[in-house]
Amino acid sequence: MSDVTPDQPPALPVTFRPGRTRTVLLTAGTALFLVITLIALLLEQLGPGERISFVFTAALLAGVLFLLARPKVVADEAGVTVVNIVSRRRLEWAEILRVNLRPGDPWVFLDLSDGTSMPALGIQPGIAKQRAIADARALRALAEARSTAGPGTPRN
């Protein structure tokens, strides 16, 4: 994503995701699967059932890492799709009252019109803090520009 000023939201559609974290998780998951599978094939004393259990365990561990790499936030003209580890939720722009990324937060939280708060793991300051801050500002600018309340309305 390119640099965006707070007054100028990015062009839609736009996808926010923790790129470096995702790369690390996908690489680690693939390497883990390959190494454990290779070990299962090279150990001659293992029987067929034991080899299968090694590969199955490798697939499970890699699957967990792939799930952790899944989060993203996709904004388009109609609203926002928040994809977290095991869930996906579609939100209309009017449902998003505020986009929060406070110091110490592990990811962005969306304050919703139904009174709840929803985590958006697709924007997280883990490895790339400045990128997460810029992405949170861009999503906030989009939400304010497309909200029925408008950017001048106070947000609690």
Describe this structure in words.
The protein has three helices and seven strands; from the N terminus they run E-H-H-E-E-E-E-E-E-H. It is elongated and about 65 Å long. The model is unreliable at 150-156 (pLDDT under 50). Strands 1-2-3-4 form a four-stranded antiparallel beta sheet, covered by helices on one side. Strands 5-6-7 form a three-stranded antiparallel beta sheet. The longest helix is centred in the N-terminal third of the chain and has 24 residues, at 19-42. Strand 2 (72-75) and strand 3 (79-83) form a beta hairpin. It has helices spanning 19-42, 48-68, 129-146, and strands spanning 14-16, 72-75, 79-83, 88-92, 96-100, 108-112, 117-120. The two termini are 28 Å apart. The chain is an alpha+beta fold and 156 residues long. Helix content is 40%, strand content 20%. Helix 1 packs antiparallel against helix 2. Keywords: Membrane, Transmembrane, Transmembrane helix. This is PH domain-containing protein. InterPro entries: CFP-6_PH (IPR019692).
What is the secondary structure topology, with strand pairs?
Blueprint: E1 14-16, H1 19-42, H2 48-68, E2 72-75, E3 79-83, E4 88-92, E5 96-100, E6 108-112, E7 117-120, H3 129-146
Antiparallel strand pairs: 1-2, 2-3, 3-4, 5-6, 6-7
Pfam families: bPH_6 (PF10756)
Keywords: Membrane, Transmembrane, Transmembrane helix
Transmembrane segments: 24-46, 52-69
